[in-house]
Design brief:
alpha/beta; Rossmann fold; globular
Length: about 300
């Protein structure tokens, strides 16, 4: 199981390649502005940790993605001089598709959902010998994403700020939340946040194992995994307190509030954790020190306005 030692090693490894994203305080809540990471999401952390620790074939790497992981792999691969082929489904947001193209990856768009894109990616890997970089169910990915938690905790210490009691983290396949949970490992309560229409972790915790779920949410391109990863679940069943479910309406309201109050243009998945707190899906206790991770900003301003 990925733990604090692996996350500390990942932090030392990827530090030259990623941004140390800032924190802001609002009404006693600590907001981690991870959407300011390269490519507009937390994903480069895991992408760089994979590319810097694994043997890379001459044909390069391949990844399936709803958009953010693909952009991160394309970006990291270009920085390190590695060929990359990215598979995304038809639901991928245009802004994310354009980023993947801009970073120079070989882009393939096909299939209705992430699972369909993953099947196409796996067929390509089998035919070519490319190295597959999984979006979440990978030890290197988990350790890379876990550096968000390490950075958050140490930056609060450096500022002399109070420690966190709870962190709210959006969940898709489970890579980000399992990395953060592995870092805090029971010292801080970790609450996963999922859309009501895309609840892979919620269902897995109820069943005691990963299970397939239907996906229908405005956040499906980033939080639309049908099943939580097996490696992720091994961590999450031990270190995640529970899952808070948010409606699409609460996510939209959170996007609007982040723009109105902070001039933050968050994509639906990036606003979900904030939506849990703002809507009361997660009700903080009196005096509870809560951290909210804002993890993605690859949104179309016109879509938010409409």
């Amino acid at each position: 199981m990925t733990g604090r030692d692996e996350i500390e090693a990942a932090q030392a490894r990827i530090a030259p390649h990623v941004r140390r994203t800032p924190l802001i305080e609002s009404a006693g809540v600590s907001l981690k502005l991870e959407f300011l990471q390269h490519t507009g999401s937390f994903k480069p952390r895991g992408a760089f940790n994979n590319l810097l620790t694994r043997a890379l074939p001459a044909v390069g790497v391949a990844a399936a993605s709803g958009g953010n992981h693909g952009a991160a792999v394309a970006y990291a691969a270009r920085r390190l001089g590695v060929p990359a082929r990215i598979f995304v489904p038809e639901i991928a947001a245009p802004v994310k598709i354009e980023k993947i193209r801009a970073y120079g990856a070989d882009l393939h768009i096909g299939g209705q959902t992430y699972v369909d894109a993953l099947a196409l990616c796996e067929a390509y890997i089998a035919a070519t010998g490319a190295l597959g970089l999984h979006a979440y169910d990978s030890e290197a990915t988990i350790a890379g994403q876990g550096t968000v938690g390490l950075e958050w905790e140490r930056d609060l210490e450096a500022l002399g700020a109070p420690k966190l009691d709870t962190v709210l983290v959006a969940v898709g396949g489970g890579g980000l939340v399992s990395g953060i949970a592995a870092w805090f490992a029971g010292r801080v309560k970790v609450v996963g946040v999922e859309p009501e229409g895309s609840r892979a972790l919620h269902a897995a915790l109820a069943a005691g194992e990963p299970v397939d779920v239907a996906v229908q949410s405005i956040a499906a391109d980033s939080l639309g995994a049908r099943r939580v990863g097996a490696l992720n679940f091994a961590i999450l069943r031990e270190f995640v307190d529970h899952v808070a479910l948010v409606s699409d309406e609460a996510i939209r309201a959170a996007q609007k509030a982040l723009w109105r109050d902070f001039n933050i243009l968050a994509e639906p998945g990036g606003a979900a954790a904030f939506g849990a707190l703002a809507s009361g899906a997660y009700a903080a206790r009196a005096g509870e020190r809560v951290g909210v991770l804002l993890c993605g900003a690859n949104a179309d301003p016109a879509a938010l306005a409409s």
